[in-house]
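haha ok so turns out i had the wrong file open the whole time. this is the CORRECT one, sorry everyone. sequence first:
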Amino acid sequence: MISTHGGDDPGMIGLGGLKEKGINLEISLRLKEVLENHGNGYEILMQQYRENPEGLRDILKNIMKAYQQICIIRKKQLLAVFAAQVTGNPHYFDAGKTAERLLILFLKDQFKSSFSDEMFPAEEKSCLLYQAGILKDDLSNETLAYGLHAWKQDGCIHKGIEGFLKEKEPVRLTLRTLGELDKVTAQKREVYVVENPAVFSILTSRNPSCAAVCINGQPRLASFLLLDFLRETHQFLYAGDFDPEGLLIAQRLKERYEDSLYLWKYEAEWYKKYLSGVRLSGSRIKKLDHVYSPELLEIKKWMQKEQKAAYQEAMIEIYLD
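then structure:
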């Protein structure tokens, strides 16, 4: 049995019973560390223990099964399929369930995500699962690109992506497709990376020999994976909206890709010239407190003064120039 010590404050779950029931030593040591140090997951574990200790035992046993399955995954699979194989229930690791929350905490220990600073929590979950060989959503998590060559893991060129290049058309790359690729290059060394689809559309239609990626607002895992493929051999020219959220996106991308990314047309003169009538709320202006990148400080200062946004759809001519 799982036992507690300390009366009403169960600061420690006895682990002997877990071992007897087949819980892996690695999981046991992780639990011991969390419980003794009140680490990440402590509240989840203790709440579940108080409400349903036998249920907690079953969850931990299934997480161990999941870990064993992750160790032998050779081809990425959907989360629902993975859950069904491990537990018999395709919804066992659905978002918000105790099993899902504990699995994600375990994966955080196993895979040190390099995306966490750039992503919202839901997207970070997708990244951790992806690193474990599991696709939370393999089709709707996508990025829009133009002017690419790609090779599959067997060394063959990806005929679908090559076909879009020959037809001079954009291609939507999903996590499923990106997960099967081994190498990606662009037809030009400079790759335009833009925030908005309208700007992406005009750039690529007016300049068919270019290469471009559209992150479509907050960058998702698919966008990061594609840019990671390209970063070693290409230079990114990033352009986005002049509003608090746009500056924060630019800052995150600059921090991640460093010298591989140039903040394109991010000068105060363009902000002032294309200033819109959209007044920013106090809560949005407050977000500027988190903008500290040297390249963005002058725009930040003017935005705090004017309290208005400037949108890149209005700036298309300076990008084309």
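Residues 143-320 form a domain with the Dna Topoisomerase Vi A Subunit; Chain: A, domain 2 fold (CATH 3.40.1360.10).
again sry for the mixup
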